[in-house]
Every structure is written in C-alpha cells, then in structure tokens.
What we know:
Helices cover 36% and strands 12% of the residues. It is of the alpha+beta class. It has two domains: 5-23 and 232-492, Up-down Bundle (Ferritin), CATH 1.20.1260; 62-81 and 126-225, no CATH class. A four-stranded mixed sheet has the order 6-7-9-8, with no helix packed on it. Strand 4 (109-115) and strand 5 (118-124) form a beta hairpin. Helix 5 (352-380) packs antiparallel against helix 6 and helix 5 packs across helix 8. The protein is globular. The termini are close together. The site of one fe (ii) ion has 7 residues, from helix 2, helix 3 and helix 6.
Amino acid sequence: xxxxxxxxxxxxxxxxxxxxxxxxSRDIAVVTLAEPQAAGGDAGAPDDPAAPTPRTPRAAGWxxxxxxxxxxxxxxxxxxxIAQRACSGTERSFQCKxxxxxxxxxxxxxxSAFGQIGAYCGCEYACESDAExxxxxxxxxxxxxxxxxxxxxxAKAQCAVDADCPGSTCGLSAYFNGCWExxxxxxxxKDDSCRSDADCASDTIPGAACVAPDIDGxxxxxxxxxxxxxxxxxxxxxxxxxxxxxxxxxxxRAPAELDVASLSPEVREGAAAHYxxxxxLEHASIASFARFSLQLLALGAPAALVGEAHRAALDEVEHAxxxxxxxxxxxxxxIGPGPLLEAATAPLGAGVVEVVEAxxxxxxxxETLGAAEGRELSQIAGDPALAAALxxxxxxxxxxxxxxxxxxxxxxxxxxEPARAAAERAFSxxxxxxxxxxxxxxxxxxxxxxxxxRALGALRREVLAEVVAPCRAALPGLSRDSAPAAPSSLSSxxxxx
Length: 497
Ligand SMILES: [Fe+2]
Ligand SMILES: [Fe+2]
C-alpha cells in the first residue's frame, strides 16, 4: 500500500514534474552525579563568590540549584547503558538491524520501538565521557535535570564546566520543542532574560522553558521558549520560532463541539496545553506567510505565487481560530493570542539564498510533513469535531506545501546555481534534523490527536523518503538524498490512509 501517493502526486505536480514515478515526565529534579575527578581531568569547580551557591559545599559533577537549574562544576563519568530492548528482527520496518548498523555516534545500539505506524528498529547512542563525544560537545548523564532522553547523550556545548564561564556557571538546557529535545550547555550571563523555567511561568505559552542560546545561532542570551514544532510554517526570527503569548480573550476561537465530559482533568489540561501551543504557532504562521509574500514581491515573483501566499495567510487565521477553539474547549476557559511584536519588528531578509533556505526547511519539508501528520491525526482522533478540524487543517497544509514546491521550482528556474546550492543545503539540514525520533512529549494522547513521539519520528522519516525525496529529485539539478536509512519496507506499513 502506498498511502502517501496522493500527497506525493499533488506535490510533484506543484513542482512541475507530473508523471514522476513513486519511490519506494518532564520530571525535573534528579540531582545528578557528583563524582571524584574522572577521565578528562578537569580542574573542578571554581571557587567563585559570584557564582550561585551550589547545594554541596564543594561542588563537583552536575549540580542542581534549589530553583531547579543545573550546572556542571566538573567532568564526570556517566552511565552509558541503553536500557531499551534490542531489535529482535520481527519488527515491521528497520532503520538498522544490528548494533553494527549504528555508527553515527558512540556506543550505538539498534533498539526496538513501537509507534502508531508499527514496530520498528532504530539507532540510539549513549556516552560515558566527553571524550566519546564530538568537538564542542559534552556527555550529559542520564537523569540530569530536565533531560528526557532515556540514556546519557552527547550535547552541543559552549562551555564544558563552570570554570569556562568566569563569574558565572555553565548551565544545562534540555528543551523539548514539541518534536525533539535540544540539549545544550551554555554560560549564564547577566543579560539573560530568564534563569529558571519558573521565570517563564508568566509566559502563557504552555510548556514554556528557559532555554540556552542556540550555539550555532545569533542569539547569546538564555530566554523563554515554548513548544515550537508543530504542523505548519513557523515564524523564525534569529533562528528561533516565535509565537505570541497566550491571553484570556474570546475573539480568536472558532466554535468547538468536542465532547470533554469523559476526559479526566489531567488529560484535559495536558491536551489543552498542547492545542494552545499549536494555536500560537498557527497564529505565527499568519505572520510567516505575510513576510513570505513580501519576499516574493521583492524577488519579482509571478502574481499567482504572491496571491497564493496571501490566501495561505488567511488559511492560517482559520487554523489559529480552530486550534484556539479546541484549546479553550479543553481548558474550560477562553484562550487566545497576545501581541506578536516580531511579526512587524523583525528584519525582513529578501536575499535569494535566505529565502530559498527558509522556503525549503519551513515549506517544502515542514509543510509537507505537516500535511501528512495532519492527515494521520485526523484519522486517529476519536472525537468527530476534532477529526473534522484536523482534516480541514491537513487539507490546507497540503495546498501550502504545494505552494512551497511551486515557489521553489520558480526560484530554481529564475536564480540558478545560488538557489540550487541553497536548496541542497537546506534539504540536507532538514533530513538530518529528522534522523532521530523526537523526545517524548508531555501530552501524547492519540484519541485527542496527539501522536507519541516515536510514532511521529517514524511517520516523518516515511514521508521524507516517500514524498520529499522524489519531489526533490524531480526538480532540475537537485539530488535525491532521501531520509537517512529509510527502510524500504516503510511503504508497506499498515497505515490508515
Ligand atoms: Fe496552519
Ligand atoms: Fe500552513
């Protein structure tokens, strides 16, 4: 069964390649290890009076402060065990079959996992010490702070220990953006806009956390961030998705007749938080399309593309209303958006390279995955009203994905090599991003349209291989670099489509 055939054909047509063939708990709190000097032999914690007072008199290893924040006083060895069951060979799809297939990180293990679209095997990697990780990476021990990963992992690091941050500490940030976990170490500074997750509590985007700056990005401050990965086109400013804070208002919600009487208060609250975050991102997509339409004008695009970008922005108004309506119904109170200042104040770049890179990551990949995910969610949602809302959003996202592929086709034909090279880079980045499963989210509940993280990861790789790769290959000059290790058996998975 080729359940993505219809989506693939729609997007191939949009790309101008009709007739192409198919392809085949967040439980913060565990104080982590404080251990004597270990491999790597760091000098240990600085005796710095300006640093926050650690819990232990002579801090070593990972130190958790009373406000929940975690910093690293000295290097320690971690437990490198990967407890997940090994791949048995009876699963339905395979990114790996034995541990020998897992060579992209230390201590690779081919483990068995199960998602909505079936049991599958995938690689997991763990570490014992920094020496096993890459340059500018450290080994973060399992159970440290808010880390969701089920084993110790290598993480990008601007600092390795507190001594690298004169007058401050080397903080751990484990940020779940709704799709995957971003684990980073970075120095705390006096310019940070937050210190702990509690500082973000007034940020009414559910699940907001105080996160480290993106080491590869332009931002240098710790700041509040909410769930930023969901269906649709994000508003990205300085490398970070932006969304409005929530507000108690009634004028952004469409009627939602969900049956909530049978749901426990905990399930309702968790699902309400999820849909409020989705709504904020749909609301931000309005700004994203508004900016995209200006970029198209700046690049001299045809009227049809500019018109479609404006229509897509209007679709996103409806998506935001639908999602705020669902969130309000689940929460039992009115939820809507606050001001979104970045919509108007962020600089608007209109160079070919930056427009193409954003178009590929946010549109050709992001909205294609969004269309497929929306379709999947609408089919598993138990409530008819919820299923109808999700189906409406999925249909619109498919048109938005088609617009992205059409726009990319035009840019490649118009701007040649710079556009082609930018597109290749962006496709490679996007494929790498989805190579691993997202970390488990806070509110997986299939009947409410919230897929478990592993099912999402498997679905995304399937769509990358079955839809994105052939569409990419159909565009002149682009390679067919599909999802990493995409299993050939994926198209036979028992889906619902
Ligand atoms: Fe949307
Ligand atoms: Fe969209």
